[in-house]
Amino acid sequence: MPPTHSAPAAVEPAVRPCGALIAWAWSLAQRHLSRELPRRWQHVQGVAECGRRIGERLLTGDEEELLVAAALLHDIGYAPGLVVSGYHPLDGARFLVAVSAPPRLVNLVARHSAAEFVAEQRGLTTDLARFPDEHSTLRDALWFCDMRTTQDGRPTTFAERIASIRARHGPQSHLVRALDAGGQLARHDAVRRTELRLGAAVLRRVSPHRGEAPAPPRGDGDLGAARKPDRRAR
Ligand SMILES: [Fe+2]
C-alpha cells in the first residue's frame, strides 16, 4: 500500500539523540520543523534513521555522527523563519554558519542531493560555490538516504522517490528541470555507489577477505625470490 499523504500523526522519534553533535542537530531541527512543518520533520527523522543504519556499516566514529546530524539538518532551510533566498540547501547552510555549525556539516547540507543543478536553474551557482562538495562516502550516503526516504519518512526506492518529485513539482519547475539537466543522474550515481559500498561491507562481514582489493606481495622477499635466477642451476 503506497504511503498516505494526509496530515502526519505524531510519530515516535526514529533516531534518538546520542552523541553531542546529534543531540544538538536534533534539537535544532525539532525546534524549526516539528511544529510548522511536521511532515518535513517526519522526513528528516526517516533520513536520519537511514543514516544511522547505513553509517555503522560504511563509516567510523565521528563520521557516523556527522552523517546522522547532516540528515537531521539537511532540510532545515525549509523552515519558514529561515527562508532568505527561497532555496532550502542554501538557506539552511547560511543559517548553520550563523549558529557556528561545523564547516563539514554546513557544506554537506548546502550540497545535498545534487543541489548545484537546482542552484544553476535558479541563478544561485555563485552563492552555492562558497560551500564545497566533498565528494565522499559520507556525502554519497547522505544523498542515498534522502533519495531512499519518502516525504513521510518511510523507506522507498530511488525510482519511486524520483517519480514522486516529478509528480509533485511538474516539468516546468526548477527542481524537475534540474533533474533533467543532470541532477537525476548525479543522484542516481551517488545512490548506486552507496549500494555498492553496502554490498562490499556485507561481503567483508561474511568473509573478511572478500570485497577488498587483492593483498599486495608481502615485501621484496617474495618478488625477489621469484625474479632472482637460481645461481646453483648455472
Ligand atoms: Fe530531504
From TrEMBL:
Residues 207-234 are annotated as: Disordered. CDD domains: HDc. Residues 219-228 have a biased composition (Basic and acidic residues). SMART domains: HDc (SM00471). It holds the Pfam family HD. Signal peptide: none annotated. Residues 36-174 form the HD/PDEase domain. This is HD domain-containing protein. It comes from Amycolatopsis rhabdoformis.
